[in-house]
């Protein structure tokens, strides 16, 4: 089962119009052998970060919308724009929280696909066949205790206020059962 989060915040509330904009991405869906023929075109509404000092992308899902007893991995799905700033070589923090701010886990991650391997304790993105990047943010089991919670919240943050960040195009956050 794959579940997209219903609530996805790319920047702090009140700053959406100044620092992020909605963009529509046109994707060709291809199948077939070596020649790959186009069978359709898909539109994705995404959010593009156009300039912020504190990077924060947060997704939330109700545990009751997920299968009970299953383990899940949460991925950020994104691309980097042709022109980016403040995103290369940086390390962010991802966290898994319950509604009410109880933190269950934190991880070091990097949205920069070219930084792969520069630090052993950092998770790096993987490029999918359609050109988008996936970054593993968290893992959890939707057990009986989790099912009593109002929401599971996963986020990725970088709080270096000295560097302006731009060029992150977020397609979504996906909760996939393992």
Strands, helices and their partners?
Elements: E1 2-4, E2 7-9, H1 16-19, E3 20-31, E4 37-49, E5 55-61, E6 71-85, E7 92-98, E8 102-109, E9 122-123, E10 126-127, E11 133-141, H2 144-147, E12 152-158, E13 166-177
Parallel strand pairs: 8-9
Antiparallel strand pairs: 1-13, 2-5, 3-4, 4-13, 5-12, 6-11, 6-13, 7-8, 7-12, 10-11
Which descriptors would you attach to this protein?
4% helix, 13 strands, globular, 6-stranded mixed sheet, 178 residues, mainly beta, single chain
Walk me through the structure:
The protein has helices at residues 16-19, 144-147, and strands at residues 2-4, 7-9, 20-31, 37-49, 55-61, 71-85, 92-98, 102-109, 122-123, 126-127, 133-141, 152-158, 166-177. With 178 residues, the chain is mainly beta. The strands form 2 sheets. Strands 1, 3, 4, 6, 10, 11 and 13 form a 7-stranded antiparallel beta sheet that branches.
Quick structural summary:
The chain is built from two helices and 13 strands; from the N terminus they run E-E-H-E-E-E-E-E-E-E-E-E-H-E-E.
Question: What is the subunit arrangement here?
Answer: single chain
Q: Approximately how much helix is present in the residues?
A: under 10%
The count of DSSP E runs of length 2 or more, i.e. the number of strands, is: 13
Please summarize the sheet with the most strands: 7 strands, antiparallel
Strand content: over 45%
Q: State Rg.
A: 17 Å
> Mean pLDDT, rounded to whole units?
77
Which spans of ≥5 residues are poorly predicted at pLDDT below 50?
A: 12-17, 21-43
Shape: globular
Give the CA-CA distance, first to last residue. Answer: 9 Å
Structural class: mainly beta
* Topology as a string of helices (H) and strands (E): EEHEEEEEEEEEHEE
